[in-house]
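batch_manifest entry 22 of 60
target: Zinc metalloprotease
source organism: Cellulophaga fucicola
requested by: lab member K.T.
priority: normal
notes from requester: please return tokens only, no post-processing; we will run our own comparison against the previous entry in this batch. if the run fails, retry once and flag.
--- input ---
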Amino acid sequence: MELFIQIVQFILIISVLVILHELGHFIPAKYFKTKVEKFYLFFDVKFSLFKKKIGDTVYGIGWLPLGGYVKIAGMIDESMDTEQMKSEPQPWEFRSKPAWQRLIIMLGGVTVNFFLAWFIYTMLLFNNGDTYIPADNLKHGILIDSIGEQLGLKTGDKILAIDGKKSKKFTDAVLDIILGDDVTVNRDGKEITVPLSPEGKEAVFSTQGRNFLGYRQKAVIDSVLSGSAADNGGVVKGDEIVAVNGKKASYWNEFVGVIQSSPEKDIEVEVLRNGQTKSLNITVPKEAAIGVVLSKKDLFVTDEYSFFGAIPEGFNKTIAVLTMQIRQFKVIFNTKTGAYKQVKGPIGIVEMMPKQWDWTFIWSFMAMFSVWLAFLNILPIPALDGGHVMFLLYEIISGRPPSEKVLEKGQIIGFVILMGLMAIVFGNDIWNIIKKFI
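--- output ---
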């Protein structure tokens, strides 16, 4: 059932994005009286799940959920239907329209993707606000694992800047470190700059260690599960753990480390309660969890926005996501980082979906993915929208269109590039599945 929910969420997100993207092409094409022969959700390789002709257009649903398309008459596209191009141009064909109209038609999809993301981010900010951990609110520094150590970081470091710029949010700092070149930290009262080597990033990506960086906190208890080992041992809400078995354990990670290494053992825990130290005896159960929840009071902040205040902030969020995705390409195409091995296809994306229905996640992921589709589609690769835009800009600047042979060869080259990228993506998905059974 959980897998079914994940698949349905994925299909819903992709369906909305594809339909709106293709409407971005369809609406200006119809406005400029250009014939649209097909409008498809998903690809109809060999057969369709559904199709119906209304007017001049066949509307359908394919069986391969990797995108969708509109087929516009008189246009050399991925269908490579060159027979139509041998006849005399008709006034309702794409090739007969002025270059500026064709440019608007081709830019329609990415434009819709951008404005969709802006709209979703605006509404999320208006309804939910923006809850985050300020990067400069980590009084006790960061918490890193062995992967973080390979990047040159140490537990207790306080992040000051990444590539010379301060991050507003802790989550942004994590991503900035993955994509950045160096990080400036306060370590034991001294300011130092740590270069972020490709080898260190390779360790992050090869182990999928995106949780290599956390934040260090005092071990203050927010709640105790009734009937748990902690409850039976006398731990109460508000206790601050200061030592375990006579050894100082001021921070949550230090306390958890002792618990995880002491299943079915008795431990002595010293807590600070109402300004006084109290000693408690706790028997750690077999599962090495004593039933306490860490207090995160005053750690998170929420920025609230009015509707009109959310509009510019939603735009800023969209631009920030776009900028982040452009920076990701720098890392992905650096073979030393091995980041290309972690690029996910449909299978990997389904695994990212929550196992319970989550509208907030759906809308957030849809907005992020909409920006991603806009960015990918505008790349100047033939067979993508950006490839068509590239040829149209050449025509507008030079005053003459590229020959049909150039357009045909461009589509073939673009198709080969896309198939190569898809092979890598699907190969990663399959390999990640295989690794689970090795």
